[in-house]
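Suppose you are handed a protein chain with no further information: no name, no annotation, nothing but its sequence. What can you learn? This example shows the usual starting point.
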Amino acid sequence: PSGFDPATARQRLLEHFGAASLEPYGCEHLPLAIAAAGAALRYLQENQVSDLAHLRNLQTYSPDSFVGLDSVTRRNLELTRTLRDGKVEGSLLGVLDHTVTAMGARLLRRWIQQPLLDLERIQERLDAVEELCPTPTGEGRGPFLRADLRRLLDGLHDVERLVGRVGTGLANARDLATLRRTLERIPRIKRLLAQARSPRLRALNDDMDELRDVAALIGQALVDSPPILLKEGGLIRPGYHAELDRLRRAAAEGRDWLATYEAQERERTGIPTLRVRYNQVFGFFVEVPRSKAHLVPPEYERRATITHAERFITPELKAREAEILSAEDRANELEYDLFVELRRQVAAHTDRLQRAARVLAELDVLAALAEVAARYGYTRPVVDESAVIEIREGRHPVVERMMPEGARFVPNDTHLDGESHRLLVITGPNMSGKSVYIRQVALIALMAQMGSFVPAASARVGLVDRIFVRAGATDDIAQGRSTFLVEMAETAYILRHATPRSLVVLDEVGRGTSTYDGMGLAWAVGEELHNRIGARTLFATHFHELTGLADQLPGARNYSLAVKEQGQGVVFLYRLVEGGADRSYGIQVARLAGVPDHVVERAREVMARLTREQGSKGAGEHGGRGAREQRSREQRARALREISASYMVGEGQERLLVPADDEVVWAVVRELFGLDIANLTPVQALVVLNEWQQRLRETQRG
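A reasonable first move is to predict its three-dimensional structure. Written in structure tokens, the prediction is:
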């Protein structure tokens, strides 16, 4: 359509802004941006009755200024709404949104969707949040400053929307009264921020126009609580306009005359319930109960009869009606004209009002991020130009808030450096926490670059230019695309757009096709990310064979989410440990999910048979398998020792030294984990301990 033609759009923009060039708006040489802005302006001009004079500025969005987040990543990270039901609650926005104004809420949403790449701007935001937070020792004025600032911001109305209504001529008197009350708080906010130390808070304070003249203009003209209707009077404050005051006096005198006339007629006619009334059909009239109609004087002229009353007009009412109504009508018309002029004068300050709205919104967001940090124990991240992502005791910001009361989120560490720890292959069974872990790393990096504190004991984030999160897939029936095709399309996008500065999070690749096809694809994707792209990558997978990447690639490392077996079941420890998992525990998870016991048992039988057949087929085919299995056993043993450290005997106690792959020892450890101590009698405990002691002594002698 012609509205998107760059030349036509450019001319429309120049005419609207009264400019000779679009250079000051940053889009003079961006034809697509000009076309989009011009088309939007054309739509508004054709659908709004006003001249859009309040649209004074044009901001050009540059993707190069923000972390790249494609739609798949936004959806999988659940930044502003959940995958399941599309609600804000359960998303990152739902956790971070402690703003107290509508302006701040909208800005926070933009910050979440547009993390920064400018290191200086990131540090400025972090400095501001830090100033509004308590110090590690709990001292300082930060919490008091934050509380006072949030108290002043709380209840402020949406200045951005109000200015839009003023500019389009849609604002009523209550809108302007609301705007005045909001503007009257700005001087108090400026006084509060006068002692701010952080550069961003000081800059915001300097940029904030107090707008005392605009508040005074509205306050002098409007009453404190004006009616919503504009043409029925009661808008303008007495003393604001001399002619209006004169007309009001005339109308008031007329009403006084009516009250006097009503009292006079009651006394003259002897009808105590006589009333002087008004409606738009008859004007002023005298209403008398039908039971008293015989007392009406002869000069009364009947106009109407209703169920319980008769209505009359009199010569005196006819004589006064025009004078009274004329004064009231002229007063109402003049009030409306005065209000329209007031609205026009306020609209002339649109630039200043919009700038104040932006400052108030940013103050609200910074105070909200500080509030979240203080409530949930977030810490300030270090953001730098390095390739390192180092997180100690990181937590998922959303999952930890959604956990049931009394439950504790298990934190985990992360080390990525673009070199020796470039590709982390993460294995472990379903429900063990792989998906939560890899997403929390992406969310922590995103939060750090939007200028927020993060849920971790400490964090260092080397600037990330793009974040890619591929997790799960569904059929796209409308486009005729299968689940696997959707998965591969998303993977292809990552491989074509990721850079060494990117953070790539893959939650399963290749599961939508046959085992060996999927495994081959997943292996090749891992090699591509490591060798050619060099992106920092977290690769969660159920293909245990991918742990072999660590043998082939210098920057690949194996990690797993630890579990412990308990009888026929499994207990998830949610702890990341070095080394790959050797089992998926899928059957145990199926039991937890409620699959009938007979189906679970049949699955065990089939799995055992398939395992035996595969083992016999593969004997001698893979010469390096024995070495890998040995390393895997050593890694598992080392991890199990770390996890079970709290169960070991204390200092000074005798410790048993055994080979790391001794199956008897680890069988005893597994039994220890599964022991129901609360329901064990002392005698039973002694019997169990004696049995364990005998088995371990035999192992030691062997």
